[in-house]
Write a structure and sequence with these properties.
By secondary structure, the protein is of the alpha+beta class. Helices cover 33% and strands 28% of the residues.
Length: 697
């Protein structure tokens, strides 16, 4: 019996197999942008070959197949989504174009926030002119003020579809999350009148307070939905033809998986599913390793992802931004910056200095050393020039790198800068590490956490190579490379091991103190959201006996609009629940904002309840693999601050503690152990890097 996870990244497609004993195998292939499923099948064939069986046998023995994809993310960033139209309540068709006041800079790098001439409004995602305002109105209490003529509205929508050649319709009516009758009537009528059109409804995608954010989520879901449906439907068919009989599970940005049929109403949830898989895998492994505070860092070929595990749980986000559009669906708080192995370096003519990022070489053509036609220097080319990556050992020798091509690309940039090749390459690494460390400090310090209190997990193909640099810059002294060689495919491991998860939110405003009738209302709201979440998961095919329910209260001071705290609700709710929620709110508010941050004369309110219904994956815990370390070799590596230094090279996980300077070459990644540091192997295949303290270094 096998558990399989697949993650398609911008450069590589990662596949992981876990057997019933907890042993795992991994395969990496270059992502095939023209046909993403081809890269998936190639990776699966390599897994089957490693197991000594063919692909049909592998898939027939697979009891759980999870998949994370960048299809939705790429559709938005590349502007390659569906032609989508918007249906809104009369008078509210301009919600997207009006945006919020921060629309010009939402999600932009900090250096662009105050650059008036550099900021811009995002490109529209609704086809120009394809907005229909329907005459209907529901008020804030859910009462119908203006009735909907569904038949007339559907005829108008059909004309809109024909006039603008639309693939998708997004329906976001005012106050629909309080009373969904009008939206449901339109969606049901459209399913009959225009069955080939993808319909996205706000009551299914984001039934939340906030007209703009709800409309963004609904339109974005309609924008990515057709592409996701085609890809995952086609992949499921090809996997079924190859032998897979179990349903395809799709990774969600909230850290859980859902059957493809259940995920089909909210394809927006697949955006950033790969990074969510990595953080999910870290949280699972951190529990096994005894770490309850972790900075999770995933450096791949294209991007650098950061997430936090606090008190054993991944930190969640409420507001999400993609291409400057803000929307609200539950997701793991993963920050992504352009800081990967394929990040391009260049001469900045404006400053006369070195610039690293944000553009990436991707997988096509890739870094110069890949030999795919790339000519601009990247972070990976710098690794090759400085000796951190030995060309003959890359990907266990299956993909030899071209050192000469990397050196030539670096030499052209060095000439522009007036530096040596080594100085230029070292500068690229130091800038890249500084950018990663800055992002780590932002994610920790801005949430009231000291990074020095955390263990840093480094994964992705490039993470273990550079972790020593960005960990030291951020103040972290202990680094864990989880699963050893499996670190480069940890997101796929997290997808394989992720629980089935479904979130349900109930908008319900209750003011403290929670006594008398308010206490009864609080208990009723908790019971309602819990029951709804359990029923929805049952509808997806999961029995109630296996379901675990957790409920959070979203709380804030009454006059706050944009910020809130998630406070766990003790279950089952009882007369003391309200008092415990207030205590929890006060404690978390002081921890995050300080004693002086509390508003003594403002009332506290719960404005929503969120239930998390989950079914455990039941994947076996990782087991130590056989180590096949070979005798150490020697090479010269240019360590920043040290220059060219004789360095030990170990092929495979070491049997004992390794002092730096050293390189640990694994099949899919390399771990750099700097001078003054040491590396040891843990009991579950993890590798632990201990950096020198500032005094020691």
């Amino acid at each position: 019996m096998y558990y399989i996870g697949v993650d398609i990244g911008g450069t590589f497609t990662d596949c992981v197999l876990v057997d019933r004993s907890g042993h795992h195998r991994a395969a990496k292939t270059l992502s095939t942008k023209h046909d993403p499923a081809l890269g998936v099948l190639t990776g699966l064939e390599r897994l089957a070959e490693a197991e000594g069986i063919d692909l049909p046998t592998l898939l027939r023995r697979t009891s759980r197949f999870g998949h994370g994809t960048t299809i939705g993310t790429n559709a938005v960033l590349e502007r390659a989504g569906a032609r989508v139209g918007l249906v809104a309540t009369a008078g509210h068709g301009d919600a997207l174009s009006i945006m919020r006041g921060s629309g010009r800079v939402a999600g932009r790098p900090i250096e662009d926030v105050f650059a008036v001439h550099g900021s811009r409004l995002p490109a529209p995602i609704v086809v120009r002119g394809a907005v229909l305002e329907v005459h209907e109105r529901i008020d804030a209490s859910g009462a119908v003020v203006v009735a909907l003529d569904a038949a007339r509205a559907v005829e108008d929508i059909k004309r809109l579809i024909a006039e603008h050649r639309l693939d998708s319709i997004a329906i976001a009516l005012l106050w629909s999350f309080v009373n969904s009758d009008h939206e449901k009537a339109l969606a049901e009528a459209l399913a009959i009148a225009a069955p080939d059109i993808f319909v996205s409804s706000s009551v299914l995608v984001s039934p939340r307070l906030g007209e703009y954010e709800r409309t963004v989520a609904t339109v974005m879901n309609g924008y990515v939905g057709p592409a996701c449906s085609r890809y995952l439907g086609g992949l499921a068919e090809r996997l079924g033809e190859s032998g897979l009989s179990e349903p395809l599970l799709v990774m969600q940005s909230n850290g859980g998986v859902l059957p493809a049929e259940a995920a089909a109403t909210t394809w927006l949830g697949t955006v950033d599913s790969g990074p969510a898989g990595g953080l999910t895998g870290v949280a699972s492994l951190a529990r096994a390793f005894g770490h309850d505070r972790v900075v999770a860092t995933d450096m791949g070929g294209t991007s650098f992802d950061i997430g936090l595990v606090v008190d054993g749980k991944p930190v969640m986000a409420d507001d999400n931004v993609i291409d400057q559009y803000t929307y609200r669906i539950p997701r793991l708080a993963v920050k992504t910056i352009a800081c990967g192995g394929g990040t391009l370096a260049r001469f900045d003519e404006a400053t006369g200095g070195l610039r690293v990022g944000p553009r990436s070489a991707g997988s096509e053509p890739g870094p110069a050393c890949y030999g795919g036609g790339g000519t601009e220097p990247t972070v990976t080319d710098a690794d090759v020039v400085l000796g951190f990556l030995r060309p003959e050992a890359f990907l266990d020798g299956r993909m030899p790198l071209d050192r000469d091509a990397a050196t030539h690309a670096m030499a052209r940039l060095a000439k522009q800068l007036g530096l040596s090749v080594e100085e230029t390459a070292s500068g690229i690494l130091e800038i890249n590490n500084m950018r990663a460390a800055t992002a780590i400090r932002q994610q920790t310090l801005e949430r009231g956490h000291d990074p020095r209190d955390y263990v840093l997990y480094a994964y992705g193909g490039a993470g273990p190579v550079h972790a020593f640099g960005y960990a030291a810059e951020s103040g972290v002294r202990e680094v864990v490379i989880p699963l050893g060689n499996g670190a480069s495919t940890l997101s796929a491991y997290g997808i394989a091991s992720g629980d089935v998860v479904l979130y349900k939110q109930l908008e319900r405003s209750l003011l403290a103190p929670f006594e008398g009738a308010r206490a009864d209302a609080l208990a009723m709201a908790v019971a309602e959201v819990e029951t709804t979440a359990r029923a929805d998961l049952a509808a997806a095919g999961f029995g109630s006996d296996d379901v675990v329910i957790e409920v959070d209260a979203l709380m804030r001071f009454r006059e706050q609009l944009m910020h809130s705290l998630e406070i766990p609700v003790p279950l089952p709710a009882d007369p003391d629940t309200g008092a415990r929620l207030l205590d929890g709110f006060d404690t978390e508010y002081v921890r995050r904002y300080g004693v002086g941050g509390t508003a003594l004369f403002q009332a506290v309110e719960v404005f929503a309840f969120r239930a998390r219904a989950s079914v455990a994956a039941g994947i076996p815990t990782p087991q130590a693999e056989a180590r096949d370390a070979m005798p150490a070799q020697r090479t010269d590596v240019y360590w920043p601050g040290w220059g060219w230094t004789p360095t030990d090279v170990h092929r495979g996980s070491p049997h004992s503690t390794v002092p730096g300077p050293a390189l640990i070459e694994l099949a899919h990644t390399t771990i750099a152990v700097p001078p003054g540091a040491s590396l040891s192997t843990g009991s579950r295949n993890e590798l632990r890097l201990r950096l020198a303290s500032p005094k020691e270094s």
